[in-house]
Amino acid sequence: MIRVVLVFLLLIGSSISVFSQSYYSIPAEATRIVFLGNSITYSGQYISYLEMYYRLNYPDRELEWINVGLPSETVSGLSEANHANGAFPRPDLHERLDRVLEQLKPDLVFVNYGMNDGIYMPLDEERFQKYKDGINWLDSKISEIKADVIYMTPPVYDPAKGAAYSNVLDNYSDWLLSRRYTDDWKVIDIHWPMRKYIEDQRVLDSAYYLAKDGIHPGEVGHWLMARGILISLGESEVNDFDDIHEAIALFANGEEILSLISQRQTLLRDSWLASTGHLRPGLNAGFSLTEAEEKAREIEGKIKALLN
Q1: N or C end of the chain: which has fewer CB within 10 A?
Q2: Smallest Cα–Cα separation from 218: which of 155, 266, 264?
Q3: pTM of the full predicted structure?
Q4: CB contact set of 205 (below 8 Å; sequence gap of 6+)
């Protein structure tokens, strides 16, 4: 009987991690929303999906969705000794954050770190503390500029690619979720829903994956991220859609608008990263910010024409 009770309590605990939701909103006065993160944010599909949803459902609300995610980056400041075969160490958010906040002056910041912060090694308390210290430092910097901040738990690292590192991100996610209760932080859980999605799909197909490399999700994974964010922003109807295409199917010109939003996002991302500066080699420098904003206005004109 004692064993049955313990198992039951463990199941309850895990279900709380997987299904717990908190509900937030984009402040009414906010106009500029900035996304910080690593390569998953840099790729940007989930940000385009968020912008697309708001453009279609709240056409009178003027919001800027700015992606300055940087591949390979950590908030912990850690890097493997031979990262990228020794070509360069992982970039550290500490090096560029002041410039990003000064130039962009965000009203709201979405933060997604963790995937790189354990540097793909088993759980270690010293590395874990570096991640915690980095997140705490970031929170203090955003507080200084009086912007709102919403944290996202790290996306899932596929257990099939390495159970040890998957466990690292489980721990990082649970710690971040705990800050909801200890410090009243706004934290959106995308980790556990993504992990459960993989587990459910593998009941049907043992070879299923969200990310070929276990790290970088494809379209479905980015939709799961966007959907989790939208649900936490009170947009519960998106739970009915399996992908972004279902979500926009009822809107005229939806696919064309999404394509234009994605183009505009990429154009401005590259220019903002170049303008704010970073130490990550190998990225497209893009146009000057002035040129990029001019081209973005042209794309915006096409989007507005399709929306009308």
Answers
A1: N
A2: 155
A3: 0.93
A4: none
Sequence-separated (6 or more) residues with CB below 8 Å from residue 85: none
Contact between 191 and 232 under an 8 Å Cβ cutoff? The reply is no
CA distances from 54 to 19, 26, 188, 223, 268 (A): 24, 11, 18, 14, 18
Bridge-based pairing of strands 187-188 and 32-37 is unpaired
Q: Report the distance separating Cα 90 and Cα 3, nearest Å.
A: 46
On whether the CB atoms of residues 143 and 135 are closer than 8 A, the answer is no
Q: CA 287, 293, 294, 299 torsion: positive or negative?
A: positive
8 A C-beta contact, residue 270 and residue 285: yes
Strand order in the sheet with 32-37: 64-67, 32-37, 108-112, 148-152, 187-188
CB burial readout 77-96, b (16+ within 10 A) else e: bbbeeebeeeeebbbbbeeb
pLDDT tens by residue, 114-154: 999 999 999 999 999 999 999 999 999 999 999 999 999 99
H or E segment at 292? helix 289-307
CB 27 within 8 A of CB 108: yes
